[in-house]
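Example 9 (inverse folding). The structure is encoded as follows.
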């Protein structure tokens, strides 16, 4: 997971953090697709995942009443 403080949101930091995480995985030998999830009601996180190539697979039950969106990248 990653966190961007409110004063720094909307500047592409989360998009870059996810991108660099994917680069790290590839540099360390991970060649398959990557599963990334976020809360269904978190539009900002969904947008970050989609900007990094995430393709929505499904929405599944999560913790409590908040479903989870499941995305695959790569």
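The amino acid assigned to each position is listed next.
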């Amino acid at each position: 997971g990653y966190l961007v403080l409110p004063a720094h949101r909307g500047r592409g930091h989360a998009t870059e953090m996810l991108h660099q995480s994917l680069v790290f995985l590839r540099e360390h030998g991970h060649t398959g697709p990557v599963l990334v999830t976020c809360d269904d009601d978190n539009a900002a996180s969904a947008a970050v995942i989609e900007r990094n190539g995430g393709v929505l697979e499904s929405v599944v039950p999560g913790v409590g009443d908040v479903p989870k969106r499941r995305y695959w990248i790569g």
